[in-house]
Specification:
Strand 6 and strand 7 form a beta hairpin. It is built from three helices and 13 strands, in the order H-H-E-E-E-E-E-E-E-E-H-E-E-E-E-E. The protein has 216 residues and is of the alpha+beta class.
């Protein structure tokens, strides 16, 4: 069953990658929902498998800097902490290209009864050190880079509706408060406003975001 799932996941990821680059080159067409989900859930290098028998989270994790593999935020005041009642799906995704910096990807989803209620995550393309990173999307940079996305990224799925940073009024900030190259720990906070991918009058507020992850 796990092998079948991983095969399907890999196929979905490949299909998403192709459609993603095609989408960018044609100046923002529709993202497949599963593609966005795999951007967040992904096939990351370092994942934490959550025991399906664990109770549903009821509170945000504390802000720590110990590599506790925690992630959480409020989406319009509603709790999002990684959780999955399907043992084949890892709800926390973490990827660090290099202990010396590079691409950093962190995200999480809340999945219950095979229905993704919430998902949220971000990518910093050129993470190098502790500090404040303000994420934005620049279409011209995309065009200048032959359709390959050089931008940072952030998005959120709420009841199958996608919100991201493509709209100019969007803003998303990640504060990296600890980058421990020796022990492979990255900790910090995140927050911002994301707008609906199709309707610029709709938005979600991400508040009290925090993460504390340890890479293998």
């Amino acid at each position: 069953m796990k092998q079948l799932y991983r095969k399907l996941a890999l196929q979905s990821f490949i299909l998403f990658t192709i459609s993603y680059f095609s989408f960018m080159k044609n100046q923002i067409k529709k993202f497949p929902l599963w593609g966005l989900l795999f951007l967040i859930v992904g096939l990351g290098a370092s994942c934490t498998l959550v025991d399906a028998l664990k109770p549903v989270p009821t509170a945000l994790p504390p802000e720590t800097q110990t590599g506790a593999n925690t992630f959480g935020c409020l989406v319009d005041g509603k709790l999002l902490v990684p959780y999955s009642d399907n043992s084949n799906i890892e709800p926390l995704i973490t990827e660090l290209q290099s202990p010396y910096g590079g691409l950093l990807r962190i995200g999480g989803l809340f999945l219950k009864e095979n229905n993704t209620k919430f998902a949220c995550g971000f990518i910093i393309q050129k993470h190098k050190k502790e500090g404040t990173y303000r994420l934005y999307y620049n279409l011209q940079e995309q065009i200048n880079n032959n359709g390959i996305n050089p931008n940072d990224w952030a998005n959120c799925i709420v009841e199958n509706e996608v919100y991201d940073i493509k709209k100019s009024q969007s803003n998303f900030t990640v504060e990296i408060t600890k980058f421990d190259q020796k022990n492979y720990i990255v900790s910090g906070r995140f927050y911002g406003t994301l707008y609906h991918e199709k309707d610029s009058t709709r938005k979600v507020e991400i508040t009290q975001g925090r993460f504390d992850v340890k890479f293998q």
